[in-house]
Design a protein that fits this description.
Number of domains: 2
Low-confidence stretches: 1-26, 350-370
Strand order of the largest sheet: 6-7-8-3-9
Number of strands: 9
Structural class: alpha/beta
Distance between the termini: 25 Å
CATH architecture of the largest domain: Up-down Bundle
Shape: elongated
CATH superfamily of the largest domain: ABC transporter type 1, transmembrane domain
Order of helices and strands: HHHHHHHHHHHHHHEEEHEEHEHHHHEHEE
Helix content: 55-70%
CATH topology of the largest domain: ABC transporter transmembrane region fold
Number of helices: 21
Strand content: 5-15%
């Protein structure tokens, strides 16, 4: 969409963009609760995961006690009961094998839940993007938005996977281990528990401080993705203006910032592990040195306590090892919810006009031609920002079937006028009527289906030409697609392509801007809309192609109201009204 008027009235940062830039560093309980809702489709997997974690953790708690008892009952040196030892060894082996099996079950279902969570996050984002106003797309880089679907969703999935692999097992293991240690020797337990608290406190304190570094890292990833997309999209302009070095300089600067941010984040996230391992080793010494003298432990009990401490400390050490993934997940979570929490388009008015357009077929909608096409702008005031108005008490009357040309310098509000007509933006005051009905009383889906819009920037899918033309009417027959292409003066060049209507533009062959524009017009023709908009659609084509586009548009506008935004006088020849807009000084 042309953004001449939009850019002139817009500030550096929209309220939505500001909200995202000031997004909270920490994940709130609300966000965590919402994240758990994303796992709703995985309830069965989560139940099995919890049960497997309970059995796995339970066996890991029971096995050390059984081993300690075995050691104490082996007999005196040189008089070992081999049968007793063999039986207990087989039981221990069975315990650890079953625990390993349940650990595998935990790992399997953790992967299932993590994958489904990423799926649900992407579904929620895609649904949200369909409900956000056009202002969001006008103020947010496409590359950064795409990063939410790829990097952020993957980071959340990885963080959840690592968390699930440890969380439930850790709870069962720690609770069971503490209970058994108290039962064996409450004195030694009083010595060990402070060490455990010290380990957990040091790990969590350091981890909290690393979140901001990972958030900065993820934001820079999104920014770099946006720059790369801009480079790919505008590669011809960059080369034509000789700005390759300028782009490289900007990229190097951000890439260096990302490198520094990543190094800082990785360094900070690596600190908990050596700290917890130091506490871990110190505790082993305390158990060995004080076990007999202070705790009155037998050799078997000391072995049991060492294994219990290992059970206790290992999950914490594991968690510190995966701090990077968890912190990156938290940072990505804040970015995702910054999108999901954005205000959506104002809901349609609750009127009888709110019919389920989606339940009607495109052909039924096209057959219904009760619209006359009268358009009225009544005292409309609008500005992209509160301090600069594009329109102030603007009025316009368009009779049914008229072709209206809108001209004026860049930034005067030509495209803004169509944005308001399509309800991409809402007027600050005043109203717009179509056939005597306020467009705010018409559901957006129904209103926009009545319009056919051909923009300056062409948009084609990486699908066949047939699919591109039939994008708005997937149920259209081949005959209807060909008829629309002929009416748009596109049939001739399509037949000359290697695979005709089965050719995939951009993949199998490169089309000119004029050819792309004719395909876009054919797409609109197939929809057979009530009202038409041609927004600078001939600005990038040659005179012959412009003539074909104008002829196609004239065919479309017969008996319909049409709006033409153009700079060339040849494009607006034959218009019933010419509206000249100016810019405020």
């Amino acid at each position: 969409m042309a953004k001449d008027s939009m850019l002139s009235g817009m500030g550096n940062l929209s309220p939505d963009a500001a909200k995202m830039s000031d997004a909270k560093t920490r994940v709130s309980m609300k966000d965590l609760a919402a994240l758990l809702r994303f796992t709703g489709t995985s309830k069965f997997s989560i139940v099995l995961l919890i049960l497997a974690a309970i059995f796995s953790g339970g066996l890991q708690v029971v096995a050390p006690a059984f081993l300690g008892k075995t050691i104490d009952n082996m007999g005196e040196a040189g008089n070992v009961d081999l049968k007793y030892l063999g039986t207990h060894a087989m039981i221990l082996l069975g315990m650890y094998l079953i625990a390993a099996l349940f650990t595998w079950v935990v790992s399997y279902f953790a992967n299932v839940v993590a994958a489904k969570t990423a799926l649900e996050v992407r579904k929620a984002l895609s649904l949200k993007l369909t409900k956000l106003p056009v202002s969001f797309y006008d103020t947010h880089p496409q590359g950064d938005t795409a990063t939410h679907f790829i990097n952020d969703a993957d980071a959340i999935s990885e963080g959840m996977l690592q968390g699930l692999l440890n969380f439930f097992t850790v709870i069962v293991t720690i609770l069971g281990t503490v209970g058994f240690m108290v039962f064996i020797s409450w004195k030694m337990t009083l010595i060990i528990l402070p060490m455990a608290v010290l380990m957990i406190w040091s790990a969590t304190t350091i981890a909290k401080k690393t979140t901001k570094y990972f958030k900065s890292q993820q934001n820079l990833v999104g920014s770099i993705s946006g720059d790369v997309e801009e480079n790919l999209y505008g590669r011809r302009e960059i080369k034509a203006f000789g700005c390759e070095e300028k782009f490289l300089e900007s990229f190097r600067e951000k890439n260096e910032q990302l490198n520094k941010s990543s190094v800082t984040a990785q360094f900070a996230s690596s600190l908990p592990n050596p700290v917890t391992r130091f506490v871990d080793s110190t505790t082993y010494i305390l158990i060995g040195a004080l076990g007999v003298w202070f705790g009155g432990l037998t050799a078997g009990n000391i072995t049991t306590f060492i294994l219990y401490w290992k059970n206790f400390s290992k999950p914490i050490n594991d968690l510190t090892n995966i701090t990077t993934q968890i912190m990156a997940a938290f940072a990505s979570l804040t970015r995702v919810f910054a999108i999901l929490d954005l205000p959506e388009e104002t809901p349609d008015a609750e009127t009888g006009a709110e019919t389920a357009v989606g339940e009607k077929s495109a052909s039924e909608l096209n057959e219904k031609k009760s619209s006359e096409g009268e358009v009225l702008f009544e005292h409309v005031t609008f500005g992209y920002t509160s301090d600069k108005k594009i329109f102030d008490d603007f009025s316009l009357s368009v009779d049914p079937g008229q072709k209206v040309a809108i001209i004026g310098p860049t930034g005067c509000g030509k495209t803004t006028l169509m944005n308001l007509l399509m309800r991409f933006y809402e007027p600050d005051s005043g109203r717009i009527l179509i056939d005597g009905k306020d467009i705010r009383d018409i559901p957006r889906s129904e209103l926009r289906r009545r319009f056919g819009m051909v923009l300056q920037e062409t948009w084609l899918l990486e699908r066949s030409i047939r699919d591109n033309i039939a994008y708005g009417r997937p149920d259209a027959t081949d005959e209807e697609v060909i008829a629309a292409a002929k009416a748009a003066r596109a049939h001739g060049f399509i037949k000359r392509l290697p695979d005709g209507y089965d050719t995939i533009p951009g993949k199998e062959i490169s089309l000119s801007e004029g050819q792309k524009q004719l395909l876009c017009i054919a797409r609109v023709l197939l929809m057979d809309p009530d009202l038409l908009i041609l927004d600078e659609a001939t600005s990038a084509v040659d005179t012959l192609t412009e003539k074909r586009i104008v002829e196609a548009f004239d065919n479309m506008t017969r008996g319909r109201t049409g709006f033409i935004i153009a700079h060339r006088l040849s494009t607006i020849a034959g218009a019933d009204q010419v509206i000249s807009l100016g810019t405020k000084k």
